[in-house]
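Input sequence (255 aa), recorded before submission:
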Amino acid sequence: MTGPMTGPTTGRHPPALPRRAASVLAACALSALAAACKTDPVTTGGIDVTDYRARHPIVLTDGPRSLDVFPTGTGHLDPRQATDVDAFMLEYRRYGRGTLLMQVPQGVPPDQVAAVQRTASVLGRLGTQNGVNAREIAVSGYAVAAPTLAAPIRLSFQRMQAKVADACGLWPQDLGAGNFATDYNNRPSWNLGCAMQSNVAAQVADPVDLVRGRPEGRIDTVKRVRDIGQLRDGKDPSTTWRQDGQTAVKAQVTN
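Predicted structure, token format:
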């Protein structure tokens, strides 16, 4: 016997999700994938500067330029100080900014008042002789802290100067046997080169020379024409120097 006949079965598919719900599920899946791929940002440590020119750079900045003039005798300038004042006035005319400030000491002993006043008058006349107009000189006073000490008349003005950006004498790390990693890294100390950079900046007459070179100066046309003429004649244009202690350099050049 055979079992009862059964009709063909018809498979039913689950109902389709709404379009909005499918979009939400897709967005959630993408967010999960993006979160799984996210990593922490790469961070790097600071670069240790070992070159002294980078640790202690020379910069151009405005700063005061001053000269102390001490009254001598009855109020005249000795030759040494007169030469210093002439050079100071010339520097002010070339590089000075603003007015030239003359600070006269106040509170000196009575026997020095006349000498101080005469010296101030002499400085004013020297300024006029060196091309500094009287309207460019501003006169003010300052209180003397110790009347028994010599009180100078201070001349000052502002000008561009070359200086080291930071102060020397800083020791952020111990030079002794304090830290094994620091002691054996074979790197120079932080303060190395600061004093040399400061000395170089102080010796520069024109700070612009640290920024760019100067143009070529005038040529010696007499020597150049002479050398070209000797080359055309097939002669050696070089100069023969004899170090005999008797022949002058001028005679060597003109021969």
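Checked by second reader. The longest helix spans residues 110-129.
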